[in-house]
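A reminder before we start the practical. When you read a complex entry, don't treat the lines as separate problems. The point of joint prediction is that each chain is placed relative to the others, so the output describes one connected object in space. Small molecules and nucleic acid strands, if listed, are placed in the same frame. In the example below there are two entries. Take a minute to note the order of the lines before looking further.
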Amino acid sequence: MNTPEHAVVLLSGGLDSATILALAQGEGYVCHALSFDYGQRHRAELDAAAQLATAQKVVEHRVFHMYLAMFGGSALTDPALQVPETLGVGIPLTYVPARNTIMLSIAMAWAEVLNSRAIFIGVNAVDYSGYPDCRPEYIAAFETMANLATKAGVEGKKLHIHAPLQHLSKAQIIQLGTSLGVDYAMTVSCYQADSAGRACGVCDACRLRREGFHQAEIADPTRYRDPLRGSDL
Amino acid sequence: MNTPEHAVVLLSGGLDSATILALAQGEGYVCHALSFDYGQRHRAELDAAAQLATAQKVVEHRVFHMYLAMFGGSALTDPALQVPETLGVGIPLTYVPARNTIMLSIAMAWAEVLNSRAIFIGVNAVDYSGYPDCRPEYIAAFETMANLATKAGVEGKKLHIHAPLQHLSKAQIIQLGTSLGVDYAMTVSCYQADSAGRACGVCDACRLRREGFHQAEIADPTRYRDPLRGSDL
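Here is the predicted structure of the whole assembly.
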């Protein structure tokens, strides 16, 4: 019998990360889930991550604390900036400078200590139209750098950054996760969810999510603060 | 008159980082110094960093807090592992998994918010014989990744990772810094310095530093816990 491989899975508590966790488990990985408390305004996603980790029975779930908000520059961490309620052009104000790079770097540290060669991240096609650090060429460049940075890389044990949702639409992700048994009612995508995890229904993340369920023809289990907004596409 | 460029300088409080700060200032950069409280056992270096930042009159100095020690795997953060007192072969036990990648990533976040295109890091030739993330090919790969990761990179404003000590020996670094007026008495290199910043004299960092002063023919201003060790090469 082969020894199972270990993987570090970035678990934000959103829809995408819940799906990659189920995918990684489906591929036989022993999953170590990693969440970040980085001063984000949508803190309900951390509760969602903890619930998902328990429900999906990961071997361990850790929350890494850091105060990215100290640099400002994003509507997700800077109270002085408002979360946009319409889809704009270019890089959105909700982009957090270097967030994926920082999270992947920390995942890399844990993977190295665990002697794991796999990191799963839920970046996807819908996001990469706006966020530079969701694009396939970015993920590939991170992997190249990671294999030069680490002891494992130097010893020829290649680390692989798995981004299996990269080329899927929100609807396809929802269909995939549903087939894997993910309970999306537990997930929080909203950039300004309230402390009970109820969504605003109007930020970019809410719009993309709701449209995804609609296109996937799967009932949207999201809890909205204002029930009327749930149907207002 | 040109507007001065801003730079983020990784300031650990050691000899190398004090030198790059002086170098960056000499090149006319407005320097934003960044230190990390990551659960390292040699906490005296943080006091040294604060002293250096004041002495070298940086525009601001920030300390980013994170608990890398939570993953273990290094003698610098794991109390269960002893700091080696002889130079070994291969990657030393004092290597902290992904440390430089994590620090550069966080510097990248700050640089992006500051609209700065320069990050200075004091990696050097002596270190890169042992630490994978001190090698020139690693720094180059990080820079490539960074320019795909950021808003600035996407907009064509290239971020440059300056590692000007990369090809210098410890002795050359000390000669350079001395010519720039760096007060090395303020710096702490020892992996197990006491709370007053006094060095052990026997860890790798102490040995490399002492040998550097010796070869540079510059008096070693390091304060040792045991004065006898200072001369015991």
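Discuss with your neighbour: Chain A has a mean pLDDT of 87. What might explain this?
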